[in-house]
Amino acid sequence: MKKSTILLAAATAITFFLLGRASTKQTSEVVYTKAKPVSGSVQVSLPTKEIQPIEPILPYKFVFIDNTKTEVVDTAKIISDYIAERAYSVTLFDNLHGKLEISPTIQYNKLTTIPYTFTPIEKTVFRKQKWALFSTISYNTFNIAGVGGGVVYKNVGLHYKYLWNANLHQTGHEVGVMINY
Predict the structure, then answer these.
(1) Residues 87-122: tens digit of each pLDDT
(2) Which positions ≥6 away from 109 have C-beta within 8 Å?
(3) C-alpha angle with apex 151: 145 to 156, nearest 5 degrees?
(4) Per residue in 21-32, pLDDT tens?
(5) What's the distance, Cα to Cα, between the start and end of the chain in Å?
């Protein structure tokens, strides 16, 4: 009787274990969260290419010399355009990888600074299975051994355990409900 009970307990535990492994279908939830932004500035080196146009387009203005309308190059406008500091704000990309914003500054026909801010987006996958089968084997100080299994749906489970008292050679059953947090 003892050998058959142990074999039955082992077979039940193995069966519930295999059923539990076969029945685990995981559901996953993907969450995208913004991470801490990274800011900095890029060092601007010498230009890699510089082209001088053959026929540049210059600003002109009209002046009257001896009641004749004459078109002349507006040097003051060229100088004011040359010394003006221009700051731009450009979003290079804003997608699932993150957001990259640059703010270049141009003065004296040169790129002076390129500060940037990159806000990465982290992808987190939460996996949770709705149904789970499990097996259990136990032994306690009252010389009672148990083998069983159960099923858990989301957070609530139901289990069954076959009990055997080694001292009295009696058997019993246990049914229970459990809640996972």
Answers:
(1) 999 999 999 889 999 999 998 888 888 999 999 999
(2) 82
(3) 110
(4) 666 566 677 888
(5) 40
* Alpha-carbon torsion, ordered 128, 132, 137, 139, to 10 deg: 60
Whether residue 19 has pLDDT greater than 60 = yes
Residue-level pLDDT at 166 = 83
Whole-model pTM over 0.70: no
Torsion sign (Cα): 22, 27, 33, 38: positive
